Amino acid sequence: MDMNETPGWLVVFADRLDRLLAFWHAHRIVFVVGGVLLGLVLLWRLRGQEPPSTRAPSPATEEKTSWLDTTSAGNEKQNIFERTQNRPGLQRPSSNTNSKTKTTGPRVVSGRKPAQRTTSQQAKKQTIQPYVFYASLTGNTKATADSVLERLASLNGHNSDILKPELLDLAYIDLDDYFVSGPKAQADDVNIANFYLVLLPSYDIDSIITNFLEHLRETHHDFRIDTAPLSQLRGYSVFGLGDIEGWPSEEQGFCSQAIEVDKWLAKLTGRKRAYPIGLGDIKSNAKQAAEEWMTGITQTLQDILEQGSLGEGVAGSGAPIESDDEAEEEEVVDDLQDEFPDLGRKKRQKLNNSNTIDVEDMGGKSSRSKQNTPLAIDFTTYSSSGASVQPRKAMVPKESPTYTSLTKQGYTIVGTHSGVKICRWTKSALRGRGSCYKNSFYGIASHLCMETTPSLSCSNKCVFCWRHGTNPVSTTWRWEVDDPQLIFDGAKEGHYKKIKMMRGVPGVRAERFEEAMRIRHCALSLVGEPIFYPRINEFLGLLHGEQISSFLVCNAQHPQQLQDLDRVTQLYVSIDASNKESLRKIDRPLHRDFWERFNSCLDILREKRFVQRTVFRLTLVKGFNVEDEAEGYADLVAKGLPCFVEVKGVTYCGTTSAAGAGLTMQNVPFYEEVVEFVTALNAALERRGLGYGIAAEHAHSCCILLASNRFLIDGVWNTVINYEKFFNLLESGKDFGPEDYCAPTAEWAWFGNGGFDPRDERVDRKGRPKEEKKLIAI
Ligand SMILES: Cc1cc2nc3c(=O)[nH]c(=O)nc-3n(C[C@H](O)[C@H](O)[C@H](O)COP(=O)(O)O)c2cc1C
Ligand code: SF4
């Protein structure tokens, strides 16, 4: 074929093909390699195995993570994981990372998220704040707690990551502040981890420790509170002191209460036992055991700081087997405890009873405890525990430190729960040196007055109380109930015995001594809470039967008992603060609903005001309940409308327990300050249109009386009581009211006249006659 005859398009096509072939030959290796790579990528895609470096987060996985966070089980697992991951160097337990758990999906994914958080948290280093809590009735545990504090303080000196330790007496703190949610002060500071050390003796009688245990138990069972509200603690440990001679084994009660506290804390902290419980026998190894325990604690604190963990294998370090076993065991005990609240004790009692030794010889065991079981009376909470059957026991057994402490202070213990004591005013009146304010306000000569209480137990722990922190405190009556006649006879006997002992004291006036041998008045206010006694009305009947007037003071915490109380000559309610927070601080009530109870009592008092004489008793404690509170008190008066308002400056008792509560002489107001307060209160009452006025004073004891205008008759205050008339009216069986048995206040007692009875002689501290003068010129 002639080339000249070839069509043009064919020539162009051949030329293009030629060039393409040349290009392929020049680049074919690149194309082959690229093709293979592309194939591989496609293959990878088809099998869903994208290379990690290029993978974007999968929405499906994200969903799984958040689902896990919102389930309760997942939450718990995640919390545990977060806690452990936050501690550098801690290995996750292999059981959580094995292939079996991986296939369940959520657990594997759950681990990633917190791990990312950990890095930022680790950047902030935590310091440890140690708290040393203790209870002590006879001082041994206090001494041990002091030495523990010393060691912790020296740790603080060497290592700034351990903060200065705090020492706290369980009898004088508000348990809610530390054992419901942890110390408030540091609640928001994530850089401070709290560490609790609790040192406790054990007592098989009621004491402050019983109350502490009850608090832990109630907190755990309170449906409003998380079951492990203290889980933010870094750790805790307990040390118990006991007496192995009297309580030879743990089953027989050796250190039983420390052991119980240890278990409750395990629950409340979510098993943060940092170091095993230490136990010491007071008669042999207490010191050495405490030192060994403290060495362990020191090591634990160092572990926490260095590794962020408690160390593997340490009891309580969270090993799942140990925790689960304990939880199960505790749940069983719990369930039984709900039915039989004192199960552990019963068990011990059985053991003791099976011994041939007389339980009384063992010390601390009352033979009365073998008696039948009465129903416990729950004055307070509405929990089932109060209504359950408990072993009958003495509130203040003869062997108890409370008994020793009270008798040392001059009380005569009557029966198992009552006390009587002659007060300093009775002695003073016998010598003609002046009576207490009740003489000036109501006509009670102190040498005719018996001060007693049928219940040494109370449901408050007031800062100014002079019971030295040893009295049983409780919200429930769980003791045997003595017969009212036994208490009445015992109280009179104790009182007369003490009066007779005054016979030889220089200056006692013969006629007053004679008069004192017939009791005319009874102040039911000594210590404790008289209406706690379940048979109080029968007791009042006995007093009135012998024409002994009754002045009853209650703490406004038992509305039902107040409601049910029969007529008394004068009914008092202690008003220790004008608002909820202040009342909580000063009275430290055991009841959680203390404010509601308090208000309810004021309502009841208002209802009773036309039947009997009602009184608000205010005890002023500077720095606690005085400053800016006059208006608040006026509101309370408007609510309760009492016949009288007694205002008294606190008396400082100078005990270590008072100091422990933060009370010093600085808290005692001067009389001028009391006058200033009363004037402000009076003005506040006037502003509210309430008819009250300042009626009388007893400057000698820093006490002033405000009275309702109901007792301002023909321009004269009638605050005194006509006792004869009172008993005549009572015996007549007719209805009568407070105005029916009142009498004029003596002029020397009017406000501005000092209130010192001219029939007495004022003396100075050394007993030398003092020149009479008006203390306050108004
Ligand atoms: C009335 C009474 C009851 C006691 N009950 C027990 C008890 O149940 N178990 C125990 O181990 N020790 C018991 N003890 C011993 C005390 O726990 C021990 O003396 C302890 O050191 C007291 O500490 P304290 O001085 O800090 O109060 C009891 C002691 C007394 C006086
Ligand atoms: S109410 Fe009375 S007895 Fe009870 S704690 Fe207060 S001051 Fe003490």
Automatic annotation (TrEMBL):
Keywords from the UniProt entry: 4Fe-4S, Iron, Iron-sulfur, Lyase, Membrane, Metal-binding, S-adenosyl-L-methionine, Transmembrane, Transmembrane helix, tRNA processing
Coiled coil, from the record: none
EC id: 4.1.3.44
Domain Radical SAM core: 442-690
Domain of life (superkingdom): Eukaryota
GO molecular function, one term: tRNA-4-demethylwyosine synthase activity
Compositional bias (Acidic residues): 322-341
Region annotation Disordered: where it falls in the sequence: 49-124, 310-371
Broadest EC class assigned to this enzyme: lyase
Name of protein: tRNA 4-demethylwyosine synthase (AdoMet-dependent)
